[in-house]
Amino acid sequence: MRTILTSILFFICVSAVAGDTLRVSDTKYTVCDFSSEIKYVDFGSPDLQGAVLNHKDMLSLQAVQPLEHETTLSVVTANGKYHAFTVKYDDASVDLSWVENGNAPVADTLSFSTVKTTHLISAEKITDVLCGTPGIIAEHADNISNIVKAKALDEDFAPGSITLVSSSGTIYPFVVIPGDNPRQVDILLSGGMDGAPAIFSDASVNDVQMRDLGRKAAGLPVLITDIGTVKQKMAFALYGLYSHDDVMMFCLSLENNNLIDYEIDFIKCYVRDKKRSKKITVQEDEITPIFVYYPQGENHNLLKGGEKLTAVLFFRRFTIPQKRILCFEVFERNGGRHLQFSMSDKELLKARQLDL
Predict the structure, then answer these.
(1) CB of 48 within 8 A of CB of 23?
(2) Phi and psi for 111 in degrees, rounded to 5?
């Protein structure tokens, strides 16, 4: 009786969402993006399979074989929504992605070869790699979490799909076809840029945890008010410094008090000597972040007049000698508004502990 009452209360609390139709394939993956963590999944047919991805609000879906009849998919998410889908087999016009808000990404087409390796490069970590057909293989480049290498295993494999999901939850779906001489073998994903640094996967916390830490750090009150610079009606500053296990978090802000928009070329971090000598070349040891969290989301390259941008940069934990300083610089693309500030070894040691 208690079980029955619990079930009744459960379904009373769950709000139903109007059903959509999903078109699936046995050679391509469909990725469904919900706005909340997935708590329950039911596949209406054993010929339909899937799994919850590293992003707990995403589900991969694929037909085991061509479906003779349409079936169902039911999903319940942590925010209390019940999603009901009708699922049909349609290899010609399969839905490579479904997003709850309706803004599903458009899939591009790539050709893979058995004699050339294709690299897909992102500005952030790739958390999930899905190959829809056994005719292709894809995996992270050795110990580098924002570069995926892929190629064909057979010359005449059945056209399929490869789908990547980034640490921020962006879905990158591609239709893959065989090709002897692919035109593109280095693919820069949307949001990436030429020369994006490699992100090495050697921190004790994963990218999902760093995103949670970044969200928490960005939401805390301003901790630091005396490290930064003001120049040409621009303000570039450090407003928070935190540590968790073997990572450090630097909370940066960039404010544009001009009427002219500021397009960010790149942000640079490096260690150099405090005293500069004209006789000795200044040695700059650049430090590359292992993860960057932007509270504003993906649109972080353009800062409009009167607006403010914040970012949390993650680094492997480090210290610096007393005779050296840590510098942050931001460069304007095709412009002259270049800002830089520095901090000492003593200021670096004031990082506060931040827990998940």
Answers:
(1) no
(2) -110, 135
The answer to whether residues 275 and 188 touch, using CB atoms and an 8 Å cutoff, is no
Residue-wise pLDDT tens digits, 313-322 = 999 899 999 9
Is the Cβ–Cβ distance between 38 and 52 less than 8 Å?
A: yes
Residue 14: is its pLDDT beyond 60?
no
The predicted structure's pLDDT at residue 335: 85
> Distance between CA atoms of 125 and 148, rounded to whole angstroms?
10
How large is the C-alpha radius of gyration of the chain? 24
Percent of the chain with pLDDT over 70: 87
- Return the structure tokens found at 322: 């007393």
Instruction: Give the predicted TM-score (pTM) of the model.
Output: 0.56
Q: DSSP per residue over 228-248, as a string? A: EEEETTEEEEEEEEEEETTEE
User: Rounded distance, CA 78 to CA 82, Å?
Assistant: 10
CB 252 within 8 A of CB 310: yes
Q: With 50 as the cut, is the pLDDT of residue 46 above it?
A: yes
Q: What is the pLDDT of residues 179-222, one digit of tens each?
A: 888 877 888 886 544 445 566 656 667 777 888 999 999 999 99
Q: What is the DSSP string of 78-107?
A: TTSEEEEEEEEE-STT--SEEETTS-PPPP
d(CA 113, CA 116): 5
pLDDT at 34: 93
Got the DSSP string for 272-334? EESS--SSSPPP-EE---SEEE-TT-S--SEE-TT-EEEEEEEEE-----TTEEEEEEEEETT
Residue type at position 325: I
| Cα distances (angstroms) measured from residue 138 to each of 67, 129, 147, 198, 276 | 26, 7, 10, 17, 48
Phi/psi of residue 237, each to 5°? -150, 160
pLDDT tens per residue, range 283-295: 678 888 888 888 8
348 CA to centre of own chain = 27
Q: Classify residue 9 as exposed, middle or buried by CB count within 10 Å of its CB (0-12, 13-18, 19+).
A: exposed
